[in-house]
Amino acid sequence: MTDIAITVNDVNKCFHVFENQRSKLLNTIWPKYKPGIKEIWALKGVGLEIQRGEAVAIIGRNGSGKSTLLEILTGTLTATSGEVKVNGRISALLELGSGFNPEYTGRDNVILNGLLLGLTRKEVLNRFEEVVAFAEIGEAIDRPVKTYSSGMMMRLAFSVQILIQPDILVIDEALGVGDFFFQQKCFARLRKMRTEGLTLLFVSHDMGTVRDVCQRALYLQSGIPVFFGDTSTAIRLYMNQTQSSPRKISTDTLITTPQFFEQLTSDAIWSGRSETVSRLVAVHIRDMNGHIIDHAKIGETVLIQACYLTTPEDESLTISLAIKNRYDQTVISINSKQLGIDSIVGLNECHSVFEFEVDFMLEAGFYSLKINISSPLASNRGQLIDTTDWFGPFQIQWDYEAQPAPFLGMFGLPTKGRLK
């Protein structure tokens, strides 16, 4: 068997949106008829090659074409142009409960899915008890699937994948449903299947899971492949995807060469764009020894360095840092003035660095960060001059099983204790 599991060569997918039924009818009868038809290109020029036994993520914001690409790979959609080659038995969890008949019991659906996927009835029955034991849904296996919760549906759907033992498994966000411990069980099983040669194609908005599970990632933006390579670089590009055009400064005298910009942005966790001039240039995260890092232990001191541009027009500047957890909750927002630096004055046009020294007394998990630069107007109010996107993820790590944590909960407060 070839070492290449999946080959995608210059795949494009176009959807037609019809203004009215007349346009749709005429196009069906005469495919060359185009009036009243709008073309939506979901994928443009996608190409990749995935080795057997490799785990690859497909990431991108909503509408970037991730699910469309997966449907083409699994054969439920046909590409407008391009070539796709899949070597081996492929199975997919594209949509929760897809392939299940809601009127049938869980038992009947397991047997039916096994038969549809090419197993004999004897093979299905021989593995049936293993599927039921993994799903852990008890007597519900003999109830109609329409009575299942989303978590129970996910348990059964994933367990069916164990039944058919695919060469290639495609998962589109399905593991985001269900309880934490069953998710751990699923990922443990995936790791075991990968040691046995499984090729995994994984779509998720959880960058922590993507980083832990996959060696490489394809980053799609508006259907166009922006990057295909190591996971960390793909995640950095995804997190730094600009939502709006960067603000330009009101000066024509500054000249920033591509070489100078590249030096400033080397190894940055966030950087502006070299073709535009913005006040915030780059952000680096380092440990106390000056090494670039993307993770730290609970309580470890971390340096967050913001490189920015000052101009003679600046009477006073404030640099702010905000940190959010994975649930979009702001855990801290702090600025230079609150840290005792009343103002940052720009004497001329130059690049400067402001450094936040943070003791990360936060629970283990993934966090995003944001830097703002503003001009103070009043107490607790300022005029925004420039801002980064939310960037990261930055991971706080701790092995709760192996050693006691310095605190339990979302964050650690400075606390003293005494016996009286």
Describe this structure in words.
This protein has 420 residues and is an alpha/beta fold. Helix content is 24%, strand content 34%. The chain has 9 helices and 19 strands. Strands 5-6-7-3-8-9 form a 6-stranded mixed sheet, sandwiched between helices. Strand 8 and strand 9 form a beta hairpin. It is globular, with a radius of gyration of 26 Å. The termini are far apart. About 4% of the residues have low confidence.
Q: How is the topology of this model organized?
A:
Blueprint lengths: L3 E15 L2 H9 L7 E15 L3 E5 L6 H9 L6 E6 L3 E4 L12 H11 L4 H15 L14 H15 L3 E5 L7 H16 L3 E5 L3 H7 L2 E6 L2 E7 H9 L18 H8 L4 E2 L8 E7 L8 E3 L3 E10 L7 E8 L4 E6 L14 E10 L5 E14 L2 E7 L3 E7 L23
Parallel strand pairs: 3-7, 3-8, 5-6, 6-7, 12-19
Antiparallel strand pairs: 1-2, 1-4, 8-9, 10-11, 11-13, 13-16, 14-15, 14-17, 17-18, 17-19
